[in-house]
Amino acid sequence: MPSSQLVQKPFSFWAILAIILVALDQASKLYVEHTFEFAERVNVLPFFDFILIYNTGAAFSIGAEAGGWQRWLFIALAFGACAFIIYLLKKHKEQPFFCFALSLILAGAAGNLIDRIAYGHVIDFLLFYWEDWQFYFPAFNLADCFITIGATLIIIEELFFRKNN
């Protein structure tokens, strides 16, 4: 549904939504952290497991072997991303679909930022794979889901609903 068909919401609405999503992300990570041993894997479906692992890198563990300095880089990048998203949320109040997508991305960035500050790594626990093959998607968490869904919604809006200026 394009932004023009949704009701405009104040910045506080989007901020509260992001806070609720961050709380959900952090609660899920704490649950897994206190329920599972590191690297413990529990099968849920033929293509999905819960697993407790830590990621010191970025997406797909990029930079995980960098020796520790990457933690501070990713913290700085996440702070910058959060600040820019807050700016965009305040600037584009008349675009609720866009703001919803931004709120998802903000929640994801903030959720993983909290992990990096508190633990020095991101807690991942969702693992999808296909049969017994070596093909699997790297483990991830709810924050990563929020970022992916938000980015996808922005792309969908840009491709299908944005009017050409």
TrEMBL record:
The entry's active site is: D124, D144
Task: Please state the Enzyme Commission number of this protein.
Answer: 3.4.23.36
- Name a GO molecular-function annotation: aspartic-type endopeptidase activity
Chief location of this protein within or outside the cell: membrane
Gene Ontology BP terms: proteolysis
Subcellular location(s) of the protein: Cell membrane
Q: Which UniProt keywords apply?
A: Aspartyl protease, Cell membrane, Hydrolase, Membrane, Protease, Transmembrane, Transmembrane helix
Catalysed reactions, as listed in the record: Release of signal peptides from bacterial membrane prolipoproteins. Hydrolyzes -Xaa-Yaa-Zaa-|-(S,diacylglyceryl)Cys-, in which Xaa is hydrophobic (preferably Leu), and Yaa (Ala or Ser) and Zaa (Gly or Ala) have small, neutral side chains
Q: What class of enzyme is it?
A: hydrolase
- Transmembrane recorded as keyword: yes
Q: Which Pfam families match?
A: Peptidase_A8
Q: How does it sit in the membrane?
A: Multi-pass membrane protein
Where is the chain membrane-spanning?
12-32, 44-63, 69-89, 96-114, 134-156
Under the heading InterPro entries, the entry gives: Peptidase_A8
Q: GO CC annotation: what is one?
A: plasma membrane
Task: Give the record's family classification.
Answer: Belongs to the peptidase A8 family.
Q: What does this protein do?
A: This protein specifically catalyzes the removal of signal peptides from prolipoproteins.
For this entry, the protein name equals Lipoprotein signal peptidase
Question: Per the UniProt entry, what species is this protein from, by scientific name?
Answer: Pelistega ratti
